[in-house]
From TrEMBL, chains A, B:
Gene3D superfamilies: Farnesyl Diphosphate Synthase. InterPro entries: Isoprenoid_synthase_dom_sf, Polyprenyl_synt, Polyprenyl_synt_CS. Belongs to the FPP/GGPP synthase family. It comes from Limnohabitans planktonicus II-D5. This is Geranylgeranyl pyrophosphate synthase. It holds the Pfam family polyprenyl_synt.
Length: 314, 314
């Protein structure tokens, strides 16, 4: 079974088990819409791949850890898409949760998914208390204060923010949680796996910035040009487009090199390369430069990495 | 030390410890505003009171459990106050979080508080893994699907909802978690303490409905008349005002009677009585009936317990 299939199967099983019966049907439908709308499942796959490298001796715990990461990711997307933030109408080519269900339900769906992430771990890990506690701690680090994805998103509301700190928290933190969770599910030290998550997470954020400039909305499945629109810190703004692409390539190299010596190293490097091409397709870059021969690839004026969105209406 | 003082001290200590250092300052300030704006701290006090009755042999775990409950409660208030729900400008006489900080920060503050609740437990309970896991499970039950406070709030978005089910989930669930957490912190069976939480929680919701009718905004510290405004299920609407007050009194009696035989039974009964008077002050009721001699105390027309807020703009 491919990692993607394993992730999808685990998500379906754990979602239904954790939702239980008797919950408000529209809330459950909103949460289902948030989770089952065609995500790439990269975080759970990453967790499962590292677990495979570490022996994967309790696969049901690995599955739960992988699911918990994806539920947290989906929760953050639901809230990020809301009018208070990106005000996005579409995600992965479908209506966002608040568009399909309502703002109140989007708000509650995000909250419900955060709690569900912990519940999934609790339901699977009670017989492995030490690993369970380590996994919950690792998950909280990736999401909460001071450096998790919630904090990362909140840097957009400060009057000044460091681009690296912002990107590490907004995207990198949950990638680090993902690789570490793979090791922790097997009762192993997570530290050797943290750099893989960190480099890959930073690469994802840079890729997101690049695609926000060069992709069209149809292929991206969500609105483009959001970083400029919301005056958000962006690598493409800070480094210029070709600088951002070079930075992305370097991060992918670093991610691949960071993989510890193990029997699954080749498989993991292959996964990193596949993701790299999926994230920033060479053809897309070439097509963009061909159709925008005079586009500035370096910023002409110094670009502020800082922004204060909190004072602007959304 | 009074339970209230113990709760406040534990909140301050655990909040700072869990926030760590280096988080976005405005996010931390928004979360602090949400937590330290003069709440009654009834859930943590209830947890601590039950723990006292159960021996309170690991007080630092009791404190963490109490804090986690209050953080979840505060998270739900922050999100409930937002424009997508109540659109409330004030809470406890102060600006709500989205008014004082911004909608994006209110959204993130709520998310951050949910994760912080788990983190507080994890930081305090690692050396008591069994109790810790039971406490986390109990907390998730009180907040998540299918019957926790997130589900309770979501019943407002359904086209039909049972008033009892709605109230049990919206308010009762976290009260049940609170009394059960007191027992679980001491490694004891939570079941005997669940009815106290359930009756008290229902009484709180009924009291909220009553005060929404008879109080003025100044004494309540938040807008009144919200149930009618938002067409929300309400005991005062369903039973009439005197019916709701009688129901409240009955619930308080049941709460007091449910307290298991223990050396702290008198202390707990006293706490319940004090809360009863604080919630629905006799003087307030008498004052209202004096100034509204012709107010309908029974509904004149059948009252729909169901509502669909999801289709109305907020």
């Amino acid at each position: 079974m491919s990692l993607l299939k394993r992730a999808e199967l685990a998500l379906s099983t754990h979602f239904e088990q954790a939702a239980g019966s008797g919950a408000p049907p529209r809330l459950v439908a909103a949460m289902r819409h948030a989770v089952f709308s065609g995500g790439a499942r990269i975080r759970p796959q990453l967790c499962m791949a590292v677990a495979t490298a570490c022996g994967d001796d309790v696969p049901e715990l690995t599955n739960a850890a992988a699911v918990a990461l994806e539920l947290m990711h989906c929760a953050s997307l639901v809230h990020d898409d809301m009018p208070a933030f990106d005000n996005a109408d579409t995600r992965r080519g479908l209506p966002t949760v608040h568009k399909a269900f309502s703002e109140p339900l989007a708000l509650l769906a995000g909250d419900g998914l955060i709690v569900m992430a912990y519940k999934v771990l609790l339901q699977a890990g009670a017989h492995r208390p030490e690993r369970l506690i380590a996994l919950m701690d690792n998950l909280s680090t990736g999401v909460g204060l001071p450096h998790g994805i919630v904090a990362g998103q909140a840097w957009e509301c400060e009057t000044s923010a460091d681009l690296g700190e912002y990107q590490r928290a907004k995207t990198g933190a949950l990638f680090v949680s993902a690789t570490c969770a793979g090791a922790l599910s097997c009762g192993q030290e997570p530290a050797p796996w943290a750099p893989l998550g960190a480099y890959l997470g930073e690469a994802y954020q840079v890729a997101d910035d690049i695609r926000d400039v060069i992709a069209d909305a149809a292929s991206l499945g969500k609105p483009v040009g959001q970083d400029v629109l919301h005056a958000r810190p962006s690598s493409a703004q800070a480094l210029g487009l070709d600088g951002a692409i070079a930075h992305f390539d370097h991060l992918i190299e670093q991610a691949a090199s960071s993989i510890p010596a193990c029997s699954s190293r080749d498989m993991l490097r292959h996964l990193v390369q596949l993701e790299s091409e999926r994230l920033v397709p060479k053809a897309l870059c070439e097509g963009y430069f061909k159709s925008h021969p005079h586009s500035p690839t370096r910023p002409n004026t110094p670009v502020a990495l800082a922004t204060d969105r909190s004072s602007t209406p959304h």
